[in-house]
Amino acid sequence: MKLTIHGAARQVTGSMHLLEVNNYKILIDCGLDYERERHLQSNEDFPFRPSDIDVVILTHAHIDHSGNLPTLIRLGYEGQILSTAPTADLTELLLLDSVSIFMNKANKGRKHGRNRGKANSGSQPLYLQKHVMDTMERFVTIGYNKPFRLTGDVELTFIPAGHLLGAAAAVLKVNDNGQEKTIAFTGDIGRKDYPVLNDPEPLPPVDYLVSEATYGGRYHTKDRTVEQALVETIEKACIKEQGRLIIPAFSIGRTQSLVFALNKIFSSGLLPAVKVFVDSPMAVMATRIFRKYHYLVNDEAQEFYNKQGDEFEFDNLTYVETLKDSRQVSNYFEPCIIISSAGMLEGGRIQDHLFYNIQNYYCTILFIGYCAKGTLGHRLLRGDPIVHIKDRDLAVYATIKQTDVLSAHGDHDDLMGNILSQDKSKLKTVFLVHGETSSMDTLATSIEGAGYKAVVPEKGVDYIL
């Protein structure tokens, strides 16, 4: 049995791991690598022939895990893609959104090229809608905790991982030339008591563990609940200052958890009613998928639904779908909350809201997620006094705040808890992926201090297990 980490090695994005068992090749995740120094087209450069892969296992829908699947198929992969049912539905939304982003960038590039007297300056889309549709035809969905035999030598089981609706750890039981071995791939690990989502389930004892390390060495705020943090910010921004609160939030997962938290706040009377706009067509479609798989949301959300109705609907909440309606939100001058994507401010309708509000002293911008270096969100959080939005340099007069109470990633303690639950005499190696180098190194030190073996693999290095 051979393991090769081909993506998210000593970096966050581009998750892609190859497991070979008796000449049977299993690809776990096929994510888009969008690190700043990488060119988009480099995602075509697979370190193997796509046609040689026998099966793909997808842990969850986020683009850094699913976003390069259409490229894999476009370049020759002919097999199945195995995932949970919610992951398949959410992946389709995200891949189609990626096509829109690719096309917008290509069109902007061509426009700038024409202005500079150059032809064909736009980068070509990595894939098109047709390739996404071809990809979706390959999906075969599997329920949680239901063993699924890939071959006579390999059995797959999905274990709930929290983090996102449908997210799963992939546990593989392997007959390697007569010897039974087990290996688990965590995907991304969620956190406990997260709005809407169930807690991650413990993994069974395994011989090898490939674990994400996003929050290695970092700890979430534990002295306040999601509702307490939101009430404090809303009360100051919208009630005392009579201003507006803008919350950049990813449309899939984060927005649904945020809406449920706001529903609980306003329905319980913790704050007087404030108008809430969810300005994201994708969030509307994703919320429909959350409703479709309502049986998979956590007990708190189920109980709320049974007693008070739809957790994603409440008085004063408006889902904004058309661009015309989105522009009208900017002309709403009463105190309000605007939830819009994208979370790092690198595109989407949130840029319009920032453009019109970044110089508003009575506006607060609340970040509820991670912002990668180089993004507009990161520049605002580090305190840049002037930022560039829509071809203009604008002074920052709005209040910039951040909270981690809605981060969907488990922190250092959660990651360690996942490892410490393993049988020390059985677990031979923990491979750390999907994290910045400093996070991986810190987590590796803790793992080894607890008596386990940790490896921070280099990209493309083979490990014989």
Helix amount = 25-40%
* SSE-based structural type: alpha/beta
Shape: globular
Roughly what is the average pLDDT, rounded to an integer? 92
Strands ordered across the widest β-sheet: 6-5-4-3-2-1-22
Number of helices, counting only DSSP H or I runs of 4 residues or more? 13
**Whole-number radius of gyration?**
22 Å
Provide the β-strand percentage band.
Answer: 15-25%
Oligomer: single chain
Distance between the termini: 5 Å
How many DSSP E strands?
22
Low-confidence stretches: none
**Main sheet: strands, sense, barrel:** 7 strands, mixed
Brief synopsis:
The chain has 465 residues and is α/β, with parallel strands linked by helices. Helix content is 31%, strand content 22%.
Account of the protein in words:
The protein has 465 residues and is of the alpha/beta class. The protein is 31% helix and 22% strand. It has 13 helices and 22 strands. It has helices spanning 63-66, 69-74, 85-115, 129-136, 226-240, 254-267, 281-292, 299-308, 323-329, 350-357, 376-381, 412-420, 437-449, and strands at residues 2-7, 16-21, 24-28, 55-57, 80-83, 139-141, 148-149, 154-160, 168-176, 179-185, 208-212, 244-248, 275-279, 317-320, 336-340, 363-367, 386-389, 392-395, 399-402, 429-433, 454-455, 462-464. A seven-stranded mixed beta sheet has the order 6-5-4-3-2-1-22. Helix 3 packs antiparallel against helix 7 and helix 5 (226-240) crosses helix 6. The longest helix has 31 residues, at 85-115. It is globular, with a radius of gyration of 22 Å. It starts with a strand and ends with a strand. The model has no long low-confidence stretch (mean pLDDT 92).
